[in-house]
Amino acid sequence: MKKIQINSFEDYRQQYQESINNPEEFWGGIAENFNWHKKWDQVLDWNFDEPKVEWFKGARLNITENMLDRHLNTLGDKKAIIWEPNEPGHSPKTYTYQELYDAVCEFANALKSQGVQKGDRVCLYLPMIPQLAIAVLACARIGAIHSVVFAGFSASALADRIQDAEAKMVITSDGLRRGVKEVPLKSVVDEALENCSSVERVIVFSCLNWNIDMQEKRDIWWNDAIRNQAGPCPATSMDAEDMLFILYTSGSTGKPKGVVHSCAGYMVYTAYSFQNVYQYQPEDIYWCTADIGWITGHSYILYGPLLSGATSIMFEGIPTYPDAGRFWEIVAKYKVNQFLTAPTAIRSLMGAGDEHVEKHDLSSLKVIGSVGEPINAEAWHWYHDKVGRGQCAVVDNWWQTETGGIMISGLGNFSPQKPTYAGYPLPGIQPVLLNQDGTEIEEADVEGYLCIKAPWPSILRTTYGDHERCRVTYFSHYKGYYFTGDGAKRDADGMFRIIGRIDDVINVSGHRFGTAEIENAINEHEQVVESAVVGYPHPIKGQSIYAFVVCDDEIPEEEKARIEIKEVVAKQIGKIALPEKIQFVSGLPKTRSGKIMRRILRKVAEGDVSSLGDTSTLLDPAVVDEIVQKAL
Ligand code: PRX
Questions:
Q1: 510 alpha carbon to ligand 1 midpoint, in Å?
Q2: What's the CA gap between 135 and 123, in Å, rounded?
Q3: Conformation bin of residue 404: beta by default, left when phi > 0, alpha when psi is -120 to 50
Q4: Does pLDDT of 502 surpass 80?
Q5: What spacing in Å lies between the alpha carbon of 262 and ligand 1's midpoint?
């Protein structure tokens, strides 16, 4: 058995070397730390051509036994989850490992009695309440594949995800609380299900005590479903490579794709990366502010921490309610030791004034993390100096839905820190920078396409129902490499700095959207003929969405049309994807072959029209003059 925790930078260097020299021995040793029904016949079998990646081949396990049962004897009374409600006046709720085990077994039994079987897909559309965690683990307990959909997505986006996964069941609540707002969820599910024939059952948790419509034979209240279901639920034995979950994410083309993670590799890597990046110690209180609707919540609120026997805080609310000191109040209240949030939250709280931070005692913090988007130097320094009091390491975690776990990051307090640099790769991760023709860039400080040249245990296995899409998207750009879609640089010491997406993916407040996805939504508006969407820098959100829209007639009232277009986007995707700027144009800059020159639109959106580059291939250069003149 190999110990998981690295405890110095020298140790890191040595472990890294071992992991690269002999990945099978390295990961086999780490995997010995977990409980298996049957050990593997082979640690790794792979090729990036099909692609086919199998870790711990032949092994059998259940991930929830490693998160719950394994800890009961020693940590049964330890807090597994501390749930902090949206309303500061409401009571928090705590689940010890024993209580979480009991709740998961009870709900897993309920799922079975409602007809859910191993391999069935279950869609979760829930607020950040303990029932979301319980439902995720209950699915994993019985081998059902969970697909969590962020509760900010619209009925149409939810329906797309349910249909793609052919989910048999949806689990939701009447509604959710977010700041001062109460937002309906069940009615969104009802609308989505008008177009989803695969769903047989809907389980509804009463979160707001609303009196809502329940469809006879299809809908059942959570409390009715768990009646008489208490008691153990044997964990279903899963093959190492059985699917654990699907999580939809946006790419540069088409509809969002269902990224698939499998049981064993994801388990080993999320636990390993959590313990090393956050240097979690047995008495620590850890808090990640993400939503479980995104990969960060999956890997670093639930799976990684609970596999490690940690105490993980789950927060229902938002950073600015009731005021911009809420995060810091919670840190002080629970004496949080490790804290993880997104640059967007850091920037918005930085703008709210230092007094919100200064009035709370943050002396418990040891490691503070940033994830989801590049962190600019100003935000990094504020986070380091004010939140971390100059005494905590800032760990900048670079990774993706597809990578399952953190790939490049500082480890706890001992890695060298450099603002805006994510740092060094974790053991087992082999990042390279490629130039356009696919050769590896060896020089320092040169930007290239960030690719990974060998598999790590939590790499995505496929995109649900469409393996070819997985191959084309991630493994066909450069033969033999996983293509991340990000541009990056490496300094002379080997530290990586992530520049951002080089494809048509926009990152707004750490949320990924494909330009095509938003354009398709805008084009649903009756008067819209076509549209082109680009990202542009935004001081708080990192990036914002700028839409160039062509309509069939003169738009008499631009403001009215803008509102309507935003409504259409909210309906098709959700309010999180609203374009901030909408410019009506008479045509888009296209090449003779009909391709939109987004490069030009990006420049316009950025307000940098001094050098638009080569426009000689444009079909109608006059279009560009008009766009520049009327730029918002
Ligand atoms: O562009 C990178 C950016 O977010 C993308 C992945 O988004 P998603 O799959 O939603 O996962 C977010 C949480 C891991 C990446 O391709 N990104 C993520 N983390 C960072 C980042 N960009 C810069 N620095 C980071 N730390």
A1: 7
A2: 10
A3: left
A4: yes
A5: 21
Torsion of CA 405, 407, 412, 418, to 10 degrees: -140
| Cβ(179)–Cβ(86) below 8 Å | yes
13 CA distance to ligand 1 middle (Å): 25
Which token pair is 482? 């996983």
pLDDT at residue 591, rounded to an integer:
87
| Radius of gyration, CA atoms only, the chain | 24
Task: Report the distance separating Cα 196 and Cα 201, nearest Å.
Answer: 11
Identify the three-state secondary structure at position 512.
Answer: strand
- Ligand 1 atom showing the smallest separation from residue 498 Cα: 23
Interval between CA 406 and ligand 1 midpoint (Å) = 10
pLDDT digits (tens, 9 = 90+) for 523-564: 999 999 999 999 999 999 999 999 999 998 777 789 999 999
526-530: long-range pairs with CB below 8 Å, 24+ = 527/551, 527/552, 527/553, 527/555, 527/561, 528/552, 528/565, 530/588
Residue whose token pair is 């086999």? 28
| Nearest residue by C-alpha to atom 13 in ligand 1 | 372
Which amino acid type is present at position 163?
A: Q
For residue 268, the CA-to-ligand 1 centroid distance in Å is 21
- The 3 state secondary structure assigned to 240-264 is CCCEEEEEEECCCCCCCEEEEEEHH
**Helices in 320-410 by DSSP H: which ranges?**
326-334, 343-351, 355-358, 377-382
Range of lowest pLDDT (35-44, 431-440, 551-560): 551-560
- Say how many Å lie between the CA of residue 372 and the centre of ligand 1: 4
| In the predicted structure, residue 98 carries a pLDDT above the cut 80 | yes
Q: What structural domains and CATH numbers belong to the chain?
A: 97-236 (3.40.50.980), 507-631 (3.30.300.30)
| pLDDT at site 553 | 79
Question: How many whole angstroms from 371 Cα to the centroid of ligand 1?
Answer: 7
Write down how long the chain is: 632
Task: Name the closest-CA residue to atom 8, ligand 1.
Answer: 400
> Mean pLDDT, to the nearest integer, of 450-458?
98
Contacts of 76 (CB under 8 A, 6+ apart): 96, 97, 98
Residue to mutate, 153, 296, 303, 371, ligand 1, most ligand atoms under 8 Å from C-beta: 371
DSSP labels for 404-462? Answer: -S--B---TTTS---TT--BSBPTT--EEEE-TTSPBP-STT--EEEEE-S--TT---E
Q: Whose CA is nearest to atom 12 of ligand 1?
A: 372
Amino acid 221: pLDDT: 98
The residue whose C-alpha atom lies closest to atom 6 belonging to ligand 1 is 400
**pTM of the predicted structure, to 2 decimals:** 0.96
**Which residue out of 269, 373, 497 has the highest number of ligand 1 atoms within 8 Å of its CB and is therefore the one to mutate?**
373
Ligand 1 is surrounded, with C-beta below 6 A, by 249, 295-296, 371-374, 396-401, 422, 484-486, 498, 500-501, 507, 512
The predicted-structure confidence for 406-424, as pLDDT tens digits, reads as follows: 999 999 999 999 999 999 9
Q: How many angstroms separate the first and last alpha carbons of the chain?
A: 60
Ligand 1 centre from 505 Cα, in Å?
11
